[in-house]
Structures are given as structure tokens and as C-alpha cells.
Design goal:
The protein has 431 residues and is an alpha/beta fold. 45% of the residues lie in helices and 14% in strands.
């Protein structure tokens, strides 16, 4: 099939590239000329394992191309995916102005039938607005359908998630649109859920909100464990073995971050209020998530006494491993708070250093590895559970630190082992 993907951000780039890999002819369009230039010259605007090789391979085979001529890209395909950003506004609602803009461009430039697919995460009823906008602006009698096809890609494993999904969700209001979408996903041989557009839009927000709820649930449990002498990891294992609950997303820590959960939970709360059903449970999910960072700060003060003037090694800045994304990253938030309290920070992340520099500026020392951060440090903070942090030479670390203190925000380390080596250790919910 001929596909146009509008928006070459994280979702658009992964979606377009994977559809090309499945044999479709894909045009990725974006009005950001700089980004298109980067992509056309073999560069990658984001870090995602395996993506640049896949882009290169499909570009070479002529199945994938990049353009900033969005109107022409609309004309050249029958199926158009909208993958533009829907950032949060101050009141928590999603800013849908980019979706409106793209809908207008499609309306003004379509000359034949188009299936317009919402891929960006949007609140329920956005599909209705896309239809209305296209009807209002279209210049001729060209027929069109709208579909909702939310993505469930995790940063760091997005290609595998696309190629081997738990399910594909398709929201359509006509048989024709349903048939096109089914054909497109047929090669994946995945389970497909077909519902109406509003149902698919709600599935996306409900999925992310449910996962965020699981994380806040286990974080709340971790606080009870900590106060009573239980180990949250054992508790999570014990409850997760019940298949109705499952062990996934039951890792306690310093809270969820990233560009999706915080934003989507907020947007779902906003929509629930708008439709007259304030979703109080999700407000509590947000509150627990924020509370994890406050508790972590208290934990640091509990181990270091005064924070001002203390040298702190920060391991990991990305909101999770295998990504350079620092949006709503707990590590960045906590680093900011520590700096405000007068701490001296030495930071290291395997891939998120450049993006962190833009956020933290020259207020911290950027290091080449964990050992450099630990030199003369009063404490190590483990913030992101990167693989390369799993195995470190603890004796070497202890030898170069001022005080042997490790505070583990992701429960990556074995407390018994670290204590045996002479460290003072604190994790999350490890009473
Ligand atoms: C999330 C969803 O998992 C995807 O299905 C969805 O498509 C995506 O949002 C999106 O809406 O675009 P992502 O934000 O990449 O994906 O990251 P996750 O792996 O879900 O992790 C989110 C946050 O939760 C991270 O900060 C992670 O550290 C935290 N987390 C995750 C925990 O604290 N504990 C856990 O057990 C799991």
C-alpha cells in the first residue's frame, strides 16, 4: 500500500519505517525542514535501538522516503497517518492544534479518496473533530474516512513492539476503512480489536492510565513495605504470580516519567472531568507518583544529613533505559531539586548526556563513566536502571568515594552484597 505519515517524531518515524519494512511504499512528511534534511542525509533525530539501520535499509530499497512537502505527500498516498505531537497544555488537556492544522492541509490537498488515521495519542472525540475539519475545508467532493489506530510502542523497544504487538487496535466507522486497516496489519498476524473510533481513542488513554496505576499501586505498597520491614520486590512477585494481575509494571521506584504516562494520565483526568465523571483514582495515581520523588529527596537527606555542599554522583538521567529521552524524567527533576538545595552533582548517562545538557546546563559536572562521577562523592544515586550500571567494580567505587553511600532509586542492586562490601544502602520499599 502507499502510505503517508505526517509527523516524523518518535511515533511517526517508527511507524513509517516499520510499515516500509512490511513492504509498503511509505512517505514520511514533516514541515520541519531541518529534521527532513537530517533524515535524508542518513542522520537520526532520536535514539531508538535498531531504528537507524532499518531506516537506511528501507531507504536504500526505495520503500521509504522523507519530504517536507506535506501537501504533495497527501496527494501521493491513499492512507494518511497523523503522527504529530499532542503536548499538554497548562490545564492538563492535550493541545490538539497540530492535529487540526494537519487535518486542514489534508482537506485542502486531497483529490481522491483518503483514509485518515489518527496515530497520535488523542482524547476521545478527536476523530469527530478531524472529520468536521476535513468536511469544512475540503475543496471538492472527494470521499474520505477517519480511523483511530493508537500506538503501543515503548521507547527502547519500539520496533519489536510494532512488529510483534500484543494487539492492534482499530477504530473505524465504515466497513471500507476497517478493510483497509485490516489489510495493512495482516502481515503481522496479530490479534486485532476492531471497534468504533471513540472506543479506540479511549483504549489508548485507558491502557496508559492503567499501567500508570499499576506503577503507583506498587509504589504505594513499597511505602508500606518500607515502614513495616517487608521487601516490595518479594511482594510484587507474590501478587504478580496471579495471572489476573501479572508481574509486569510492578517495579517500585522513583516514579514513572517520559512523554506518555504523565501527559496521558493528565489528559484522561481532564477528559473525564469534561464529560462529567471526574476520575479521582487517576488523581491519586499522579499524587503517588509525585510523592515518590519527595520521598526520595527525604531519603537522600536521611542518609546525608545536610544536602548543601555534598558531592553527589547521579547514575542515569533518561526516564528509563535504552532511550535518550529525558522528558518528565524523575532523574532530571531530582537533580534540579538537589542543585536548588546546594548539592554538587557529577552526572553520567550512557546516551542522554546531550539532551540533559540542554536541561541542566553548566550547573552539573558531566562525566564519561560511573567512576568519574564517584570520585570524591558523598553518595551515589542510581536513577535509571541501564544495563551497564548492573555490573560495576564496587571496591573501586568505594575506594574513590568520600562516604560509601548508595541510594538505589530502581532497586537495581543487592542490598546484602553492598552492605557486605561496606556500603550504606537504601532502596525503595526494602524494609
Ligand atoms: C508507554 C507505554 O508502555 C507504551 O505502551 C505506549 O505506547 C507509550 O507509553 C506511549 O503512549 O507512546 P514508554 O513511555 O516508552 O511507553 O515507557 P514505559 O516502558 O511504559 O515506562 C514508562 C515509565 O514507567 C518509565 O519512567 C519507567 O521507569 C516507569 N516504570 C515502568 C516503573 O516505574 N515501573 C514499572 O514497573 C514499569
Amino acid at each position: 500500500m502507499k502510505l503517508t505519515i505526517i509527523g516524523t517524531g518518535y511515533v511517526g518515524l517508527v511507524t513509517g519505517t516499520c510499515f516500509a519494512e512490511l513492504g509498503n511504499e511509505v512517505i514520511c512528511a514533516d514541515n520541519d525542514e531541518g529534521k527532513i534534511k537530517t533524515l535524508n542525509s542518513g542522520g537520526m533525530p532520536i535514539y531508538e535501538p535498531g531504528l537507524s539501520e532499518l531506516v537506511e535499509n528501507n531507504r536504500r530499497k526505495g520503500r521509504l522516503r522523507f519530504t517536507h512537502d506535506v501537501p504533495q505527500a497527501v496527494n501521493d498516498s491513499d492512507v494518511i497517518f497523523i503522527c504529530v505531537g499532542t503536548p499538554p497544555r497548562n490545564d492538563g488537556s492535550a493541545d490538539l492544534s497540530a492535529i487540526e492544522k494537519v487535518s486542514k492541509v489534508i482537506a485542502l490537498n486531497m483529490k481522491s479518496y483518503k483514509l485518515i488515521v489518527e496515530k497520535s495519542t488523542v482524547p476521545v472525540e478527536t476523530g469527530e473533530w478531524v472529520k468536521t475539519t476535513i468536511n469544512n475545508y475540503k475543496k471538492n467532493g472527494s470521499d474520505f474516512d477517519v480511523a483511530s489506530n493508537p500506538e503501543f510502542l515503548r521507547e527502547g523497544s519500539a520496533i519489536a513492539d510494532f512488529m510483534n504487538p500484543d494487539r492492534v487496535v482499530i477504530g473505524v466507522d465504515t466497513e471500507k476503512a476497517g478493510n483497509i486497516m485490516r489489510e495493512l496489519y495482516e502481515p503481522l498476524r496479530s490479534k486485532i480489536v476492531v471497534t468504533n473510533i471513540k472506543g479506540a481513542e479511549i483504549i489508548k488513554h485507558a491502557s496508559n492510565s492503567f499501567l500508570a496505576t499499576k506503577i503507583s499501586f506498587i509504589n504505594a505498597i513499597s511505602n508500606i513495605c518500607e515502614r513495616t520491614g517487608a521487601d516490595v520486590a518479594a511482594v510484587a512477585e507474590g501478587i504478580g504470580m496471579d495471572r489476573r494481575i501479572s508481574t509486569h509494571f510492578l517495579k517500585a521506584g522513583i516514579g514513572f516519567g517520559g512523554s506518555c504516562f504523565p501527559k496521558d494520565v493528565k489528559a484522561f483526568i481532564h477528559i473525564s472531568e469534561k464529560v462529567g465523571y471526574p476520575f479521582g483514582l487517576l488523581k491519586e495515581v499522579e499524587k503517588i507518583n509525585e510523592g515518590q520523588k519527595d520521598l526520595f529527596m527525604k531519603k537522600i537527606a536521611g542518609m546525608l544529613w545536610n544536602i548543601a555542599g555534598k558531592h553527589i554522583a547521579v547514575w542515569g538521567l533518561a526516564f528509563k533505559p535504552d532511550t535518550d529521552d529525558i522528558r518528565s524524567a524523575p532523574a532530571i527533576d531530582i537533580a534540579g531539586r538537589l542543585l536548588d538545595e546546594g548539592a554538587v552533582l557529577a552526572v553520567y548517562d550512557p546516551v542522554a548526556m546531550e539532551k540533559s545538557r540542554a536541561e541542566l546546563g553548566d550547573r552539573v559536572k558531566y562525566c564519561g563513566d560511573v567512576y568519574e562521577t564517584a570520585k570524591d562523592a558523598d553518595c551515589v544515586l542510581l536513577m535509571t536502571e541501564w544495563n551497564e550500571f548492573k555490573e560495576v567494580d564496587w571496591l573501586k567505587i568505594k575506594g574513590i568515594m568520600k562516604q560509601p553511600i548508595v541510594i538505589d532509586g530502581r532497586n537495581l542492586y543487592d542490598p546484602v552484597k553492598l552492605k557486605a562490601l561496606g556500603f550504606r544502602y537504601a532502596g525503595i520499599g526494602r524494609g
